Amino acid sequence: MERSGETLTGSPARWWHTLPDGRIQCDLCPRDCKLHEGQRAACFARANKGGQMILTTYGRSSGFCIDPIEKKPLNHFYPGSSILSFGTAGCNLACKFCQNWDISKSRDMDRLMDEASPNTIADAAKRYGAQSVAFTYNDPVIFAEYAMDTADACHAQGIQAVAVTAGYMHLPAAREFYAKMDAANIDLKAFTDDFYFKLCGGHLQPVLDLIATVHHDTNCWIELTTLLIPGMNDADAELRHLAAWCFKELGPDVPLHFSAYHPDHKLNAPATPPATLQRARQIAIDAGLCYVYTGNVHDKRGDTTYCPGCGKAVIERDWYEIRRYALDDTGHCPHCGTAIAGRFGRFDKPFGARRIPVALHAA
């Protein structure tokens, strides 16, 4: 926690209570930050102003872009569609390998961010033909109220809401948050608490509890991503344990993405070889998972969706480009009729690998 020197502004926040000594405690995530007047939480986005919790980043963003849905990554949520992506600033974890550290670790974004109300964002998504809006770049957990209000505005216009998150959140808040989300990609950063504590400043079990809760207790479609870092979370035994947990707790149909690390922020480990991702993918398939992907490398086989019934390719991808799409509108294999897990609809021309920055104006 740190005391802010500037005049705090923002919107009233949820999930907090007053302590006997006059401080307030944030109940949003397992960090349980206890704040004196004028002090910000570890995430930097939540602060004590006048004995009340405020969200200092409500209505302000680090920028907007139209992306392919596959970039989130989500391979089983309306494949080929476009998504309006945005984030704010700050994060409630402290990952030394953060790939978006310039946004998630920012401490001077308040004057730089674009202003946009939830309705402005929903209107922009409609205007640009995006089927979904993604809360991403930094973690939407810390701007949950803003994300939830934006999800409501999107739903009013028939637009889906997507969270890209590390899933570090207390369960009571998570149940409310994910009830508003149509899909989420959740980082499962490793399968040891030692990794989470030393490299992320958090713990593993709250993330596992959240993933299981979201999968079993909400209608939110989830996919998981593990960024593999050589020598730190890529050992065969750890990968087997991770895959076995996924199979036991979630079943065979939740997609798992293994992504390649590149040196960034405070960690200078070697980049992940493609062979490591392919080895991890095979371990997870051998554990019984039906949909396992590789990311951040060129690997057509690891990008492609295969039918668990007959084994034939039903969505062939090359990076974020869909080269062949064979499913019907309800997501069934044309060869054997097996239902592919996920959310599907009419497939027209795919959006492709484009990334289009867009400008919004406050409503």
Task: Please summarize what this structure is.
The chain has 363 residues and is an alpha/beta fold. It contains nine helices and 22 strands.
CATH topology of the largest domain: TIM Barrel
With strands numbered from the N-terminus, the spatial order across the biggest sheet is 18-17-16-15-14-13-11-10-22
Strand segment tally: 22
Q: From the alpha-carbon coordinates, what is the Rg to the nearest angstrom?
A: 20 Å
Strand content: 15-25%
What attributes characterize this protein structure?
363 residues, alpha/beta, TIM Barrel, 9-stranded mixed β-sheet, 24% helix
Question: Can you put this structure into words, describing what you see?
Answer:
- By secondary structure, the protein is α/β, with parallel strands linked by helices.
- It folds into two domains: 54 residues, no CATH class; 299 residues, Alpha-Beta Barrel (TIM Barrel), CATH 3.20.20.
- Helices cover 24% and strands 23% of the residues.
- It has nine helices and 22 strands.
- The strands form six sheets. A nine-stranded mixed sheet has the order 18-17-16-15-14-13-11-10-22.
- The radius of gyration is 20 Å and the shape is globular.
